[in-house]
Design goal:
Order of helices and strands: HEHEEEEEEEEEEEEEEEEEEEEEEEE
Shape: globular
Structural class: mainly beta
Oligomer: single chain
Largest sheet: 16 strands, parallel
Number of strands: 25
Length: 279
């Protein structure tokens, strides 16, 4: 009799556990409740997803959440402060921000706004989307282990990507026609890697590493800037390798107080003041 009671109790426990395990799942949400760690949230401009707003999805997310964003135009000014993944549908997913164009230079006091800001966190992935607005495209501040992959950050009022006091940041994509610099790492940033990117026609420089450690630029095209293509200033351990650097009004690469910078394997053409200058 006791054996039968134990068998019934075990069956009951298994049955209840199965109900609990599937309570938050469905064909539309197979990974469980929205916002749960490791879950997926769908953002759709037509209302067919979990949210129509990227900001609302980010607010609902918890660490490990993947937010998938369909094609369309979405409001920006997104602040990411926990480890999540934002995945667009390619250039057809566009985040924009309203406002007035920030003033030049890039390190003035009004450049603290961005279409997407990653702040004080780590383990972030942003990929397969575009950002555009009168402010910075993407700001990475006080963060670590950040991947910006296949991102288009062009036509912004200030930087395409501005990395500050952050480490282990990977950047690939298109960063063109911004109001100041295409991609920059500064304020103690370390281990920033820019590769496989097109950086063109920005109003000041293509890439700047300033007050940084161990940052690199490789296998990218940097062309047609009003000033230098690349500036490395007050930095250590920088590497500028295997890029095409052409048509910049200033120098192709300018090195200022960064004596151990490695420059090799690059193709230079028609840079107005010369290919490489080291001060």
């Amino acid at each position: 009799m006791r054996n039968q009671e134990r068998t019934v109790s075990l069956l009951t426990i298994v049955f209840v556990a199965a109900l609990l395990a599937t309570a938050g799942c469905s064909a539309d949400n197979p990974v469980g409740p929205i916002g749960g760690g490791g879950s997926t949230i769908q953002v759709d401009a037509s209302g067919a997803g979990d949210f129509e707003s990227v900001a609302a999805a980010v607010q609902a997310a918890t660490p490990g959440t993947v937010i998938r964003i369909g094609p369309g135009n979405f409001d920006g000014r997104i602040v990411v402060s926990q480890g999540i993944e934002l995945v667009g549908s390619g250039p057809a997913t566009v985040l924009t921000a309203p406002g007035t164009v920030q003033s030049y230079p890039d390190d003035s006091g009004d450049d603290d706004q961005a279409v997407i800001e990653i702040r004080g966190t780590g383990n972030i992935v942003i990929r397969d989307l575009a950002v555009r607005g009168p402010v910075d495209g993407i700001v990475v501040r006080d963060s670590f282990s950040v991947a910006l992959m296949n991102v288009t950050s062009s036509g912004n009022g200030d930087e395409g990507v501005d990395i500050r006091n952050s480490r282990d940041v990977t950047v690939t994509g298109t960063f063109s026609d911004n109001g100041d610099i295409g991609v920059q790492a500064r304020d103690g940033s370390a281990g920033v890697t820019v590769s496989g990117s097109t950086i063109s026609g920005n109003a000041h420089r293509g890439v700047r590493f300033r007050d940084s450690v161990g940052c690199s630029l490789s296998t990218s095209t940097i062309d047609n800037h009003i000033d230098d293509g690349v500036l490395v200033r007050d930095s250590t351990g920088a590497a500028i390798n295997d890029n095409t650097i052409a048509g910049n009004t200033g120098y192709g690469v300018r090195i200022d107080n960064a004596p151990d910078t490695v420059v090799q394997g690059n193709s230079f053409e028609m840079n107005g003041e010369g290919d490489v200058r080291e001060d």
